[in-house]
Write a structure and sequence with these properties.
alpha/beta, Aldehyde Dehydrogenase, Chain A, domain 1, Aldehyde Dehydrogenase, Chain A, domain 2, 7-stranded parallel beta sheet, 4-stranded parallel beta sheet, 16 strands
């Protein structure tokens, strides 16, 4: 096991270099491991998480007490909180990843050249992955499971607000891996909360192969500004639900309330509601949303429908609240909805509620987001709901991986050539 006492935490650069070197060795070990060995290690890790539930809950209680005293919002406290059911779900998620098909070694395609040279593209692990995240200690388990299953070693740097929880989860994960014969160094947790360690990870070009940030706007902005390592970005979830004039009112209300209020602190939560000017039940929809306890901030047309809601300002259209707050705009038609999303969306998840198939198909085709839904809640933006198991995050860029990043998104490929003595003229 990589223990804090064995590492020089006084120099962040030395610390990360040492961890990365150990991770590289562990990645080679994982490359030699069979699919069955990796799966068995995750089953053992899931069992270890379940057995360690009391210790994890106690560690989490310390984090929650500090976070509450420091004024962390209710939504962020919810992200941080672990209890029996959430720990059980964490363990179940790890076991579910163990049961997934291993992408490593999958042949993407193959061909034979006119000279008889046989070429194939085969999935391989990326290598050493650094994951920088905030608030959610379940990411420690999800990220570790996905990286190990896809043959990658991982260096985890969680937020200071979750340090005790992360250490407890990490200790259980490593115990499970070691029990199954895999190296503890395959999953390492940065032992210091010094922010300079993040900078050292971002500068570790050649030692770390990919950085994945998972957190708020300031974290992602720092990573994108400073990184010399390739980055798989997860930006804000400024997600929209557009209620078209053809929408069924009962369906629209159910989807909007779920998209906003099921869990307000998740990245798939609706932040802006767009209502078509021709939708006949707009006032009832606004009343239903306000009745849930959601603070509704509307434009002038929305406030004309329900004067008791607050007035929205320009910043509301570009804000990821992660709280029981929603911005509402009335748009003239589908073109207006598309224009609003193009101007203010974050390319995460957007949905249309409509009975008009033509309008829906146009929305699906023209909204440039990683996930676009028709007659479904934005809260389905989740790797588990997509059948991918746990996820690292929702990638909002256009390269390498997009949407929920699970096992396949943590692989790259290499070309293999089989010849019979061919030489090039």
């Amino acid at each position: 096991m990589v223990r804090a006492a064995m590492l020089d935490t006084h120099s962040p650069t030395t610390l990360i270099a040492t961890m990365a070197a150990r991770a590289r060795d562990a990645a080679r070990w994982l490359a030699r491991s069979t699919d069955a060995q990796k799966a068995a290690a995750l089953v053992a890790a899931a069992d270890a998480i379940r057995a360690a539930a009391p210790a994890i809950i106690a560690a989490n209680a310390a984090d929650l007490a500090r976070a509450s005293a420091n004024g962390l919002s209710g939504a962020l406290l919810d992200r941080l909180r672990l209890d029996g059911p959430r720990i059980a779900a964490m363990a179940d998620g790890i076991a579910a990843v163990a049961a997934l098909a291993d992408p490593v070694g999958q042949v993407i395609d193959r061909s034979t050249r006119p000279n008889g040279l046989m070429l194939s593209r085969v999935r391989v692990p990326i290598g050493v992955i650094g994951i920088i995240y905030e608030s959610r200690p379940n990411v420690t388990a999800d990220a570790a499971a996905l990286c190990v299953r896809s043959g990658n070693a991982v260096i985890l740097r969680g937020g200071s607000e979750a340090i005790d929880s992360n250490r407890a989860v990490h200790a259980a994960m490593v115990a499970g891996l070691e029990l199954a014969g895999l190296p503890a160094e395959a999953v390492q947790l940065v032992p210091t909360t010094d922010r300079a360690a993040v900078g050292a990870m971002l500068a570790a070009d050649g030692a770390i192969d990919l950085i994945i940030p998972r957190g708020g706007k300031s974290l992602v902005a720092r990573v994108q500004a400073e990184a010399r390592v390739p980055v798989l970005a997860h930006l804000d979830g400024i997600n929209h639900v557009y209620v078209h004039r053809s929408a069924d009112p009962a369906m629209a209300e159910a989807i909007v309330l779920n998209a906003k209020m099921r869990r307000t602190g998740v990245c798939g939560a609706m932040e802006t509601l767009l209502i078509d000017r021709g939708y006949p039940a707009a006032e009832a929809l606004l009343r239903a949303l306000a009745a849930t306890g959601c603070t509704v901030r509307g434009d002038a047309a929305a406030r004309a429908l329900l004067p008791t809601i607050d007035a929205a300002d320009a910043a509301d259209w570009d804000t990821e609240y992660l709280d029981a707050i929603a911005a509402v705009a009335v748009v003239d038609d589908l073109d207006g909805a598309l224009a609003h999303i193009a101007a203010h969306g974050s390319h995460h998840t957007d949905a249309i509620v409509a009975a008009d198939e033509g309008a829906a198909e146009r929305f699906l085709a023209e909204v440039d987001s990683a996930i676009v839904l028709w007659n479904a809640s934005t809260q389905f933006a989740d790797g588990g709901e997509f059948g991918l198991g746990a996820e690292i995050g929702i990638a909002t860029g256009r390269l390498h991986a997009r949407g929920p990043v699970a096992l396949e998104g943590l692989t790259t490929y290499k070309w293999l050539g089989h010849g019979t003595g061919q030489v090039r003229a």
